Description:
- The structure is a single chain.
- This protein has about 270 residues and is of the alpha/beta class.
- About 35% of the residues lie in helices and about 15% in strands.
- It has one domain: Alanine racemase (TIM Barrel, Alpha-Beta Barrel).
- It has nine helices and eight strands.
- The strands form two sheets. A six-stranded parallel β-sheet has the order 2-3-4-5-6-7. Strands 1-8 form a two-stranded parallel sheet.
- The protein starts with about 20 loop residues before the first helix and ends in a 21-residue tail after the last helix.
- About 40% of the residues are buried.
- Pyridoxal-5'-phosphate binds near residues 56, 79, 102, 228 and 244.
Amino acid sequence: MQTLFDTQTRHDRHGRYCQAVTVEDFQHNLAAVRARVDAACRRAGRDPAAVRLLPVSKTKPEASIRLAYASGCHLLGENKVQEAHRKWEAMQDLADLRWSVIGHLQTNKAKLVARFAAEFQALDSLRVAEALDRRLQAEGRSLDVFVQVNTSGEASKYGLVPEDVPAFIQALPAFSALRVRGLMTLALFSSEAERVRQCFVQLRILRNRLRQSAPAGIGLDELSMGMSGDFEIAIEEGATVVRVGQAIFGARALPDSHYWPNESATEEPS
Length: 270
Ligand SMILES: *Cc1c(COP(=O)(O)O)cnc(C)c1O
């Protein structure tokens, strides 16, 4: 969409997102993404205030994160727990900088998440729920969580298969330190918008169905779906949280296969 403003994150001559290297770059990119979020909301007849933009800082160095913070990002998404924890420790001076863990968690790292995370978006097993709850109780904390659903059918993607989600949701009230907020998914990586859209539609339909039988205290208002390449489609299908990395921070040097093992790299080599 082209308007009178410059509403796009800038790309280099290889079509990759340019690195944000100043506070002004971050301000520009944030405003550009927000403008696209708002425009997608208006197209879908939705209130822009109902969509939260979660900037994703994975792989980005501390210097870059400090610039993002200075431009107003106070909650950042990270895919890997240890990377997030390392950054949390390094930036203790930024007292109101909070971290959302958006990637698969192994039970042996639940302790770390319970200590520092403000939100966990990739809950996908009762073992992790149990480990997290136990650690949170010990810390005297509670945590906002999203249940991750595999809507693409790809073996490489984490998340519960949709059929298993209803029983999983019924079991969650046992873990009183987990505040369940909704569902999260990663769509198929595809240039075919219709196939991407079907992943988001599936998550919304599943959520609507679950709502009718959700146990007391289990919130299903949130749908975390959409990334740099597909967030407008996700918003049209009901996303309340979009997780956007490269369109704000710039392209990542590491291929996505580093974050979604077994998947062939989809990005060009840098
Ligand atoms: C990296 C990541 C994103 C953001 O992807 P971009 O292409 O950088 O916007 C969103 N969600 C998850 C789970 C991620 O790991």
